[in-house]
Amino acid sequence: APERYRVYLFMNLLGVPMAVMQLAGYPLTISALTEHGTQAAQEQLRAVGAFMVLIMLPEAVGMVLIGPLLAEIFLGAEYRPLMPALLPILVCATMLKALISYLNYGFFLAARTDITLISIAAAAAANLALNLVLIPRYGPWGAAIASLVGFGTGFVVAAIKMKGVFAFPLPDPIVLLAGIVGVGAMALWLWPFYGVITLSAALYIIPVAILIDFGVVFLVLYVTGRKPFVLLRGLWGGQSK
After folding, report:
1. Does residue 154 contact residue 123 with C-beta atoms inside 8 Å?
2. Rounded distance, CA 234 to CA 219, Å?
3. Which pLDDT value is given to residue 199?
4. For the chain, how long is the longest CA-to-CA vector?
5. Cα–Cα–Cα angle for 3, 98, 225, nearest 5°?
6. Angle, alpha carbons 85-89-91 (nearest 5°)
7. Strand, helix or coil at 154?
8. C-alpha distance from residue 37 to each of 41, 202, 224 (Å)
9. Rounded distance between C-alpha atoms, residue 74 and residue 26, angstroms
10. Centroid of chain to Cα 139
11. Where does the pLDDT of residue 178 fall: very low under 50, low under 70, confident under 90, or very high at 90 and above?
12. What is the per-residue DSSP string for 8-60?
């Protein structure tokens, strides 16, 4: 049981920022709608999307690229050999779960919260069905794949149902570009360290990765004429221009 709790703690490295997105994003987006209308709510949604691109995406990629080191820090010997191999699947599943939550903002703003149950039910049904089929034969791999397919199903259902319900805004292309370039630069730094499990390595691998990611993001935003500090200060305030 203690080892299982440590696995949950390990995966919550990505779950915590997702919870922040949900707890802060929902009330601010609804407030923007009620006080300033649909356009303001759409701008607030873009700010939430910026949070996902600039915070959750690099964390997800970073977790995969330093998986063995994180497993050494958080997990016992029983889980260490398997977890780095499962991490790409588990991280992708968690990101899909975050995307479902993000799309559900549109249903809340359109006063169609009933549709959120459809996407969640689709994800749960697919996950449960695949668990019954895959876990007896493939064990942890089956559970991971079931989660990935389940949340993927929920995301597709939510995206399809969104059409005609709410004009969900596309991501800010400049922020998306900056986030992708930053993650790419960070990945180049982390790649040679994959497999390093010396605990002291975390003291320089992780901080430098964070500095590289945010430094490159800042540079791209600045070169493209955006105001990085204004964007970062306004992530939860709708003032991202």
Report:
1. yes
2. 18
3. 86
4. 54
5. 125
6. 105
7. helix
8. 6, 46, 29
9. 31
10. 25
11. very high
12. HHHHHHHHHHHHHHHHHHHHHHHHHHHHH-HHHHHHHHHHHHHHIIIIIHHHH
Please state the pTM of the whole predicted model.
0.85
* Non-local CB neighbours of 89 within 8 Å, separated by 6+ positions: 144, 145, 147, 148
The token pair that represents 217 in the structure block: 């993001």
Distances (CA, A) of 7 to 167, 210, 232: 38, 23, 31
Q: Which residue type is seen at 39?
A: Q
**Would you give the distance in Å from CA 241 to the centre of its chain?**
23
Taking each continuous run of H as one helix and of E as one strand, the counts in the chain are 10, 0
The CA distances from residue 83 to 38, 43, 153, in Å, are 43, 38, 24
Which tokens belong to 75?
């997990």
Look at residue 126 in the predicted model and tell me its pLDDT. Answer: 96
State mean pLDDT over 34-54. Answer: 87
Per this entry, what is the length of the chain?
A: 241
Cα(191)–Cα(64) distance, integer angstroms: 10
| pLDDT attached to residue 120 | 93
Please, are residues 204 and 80 in contact by the beta-carbon 8 Å criterion?
Answer: no
Q: Which amino acid is at 68?
A: P
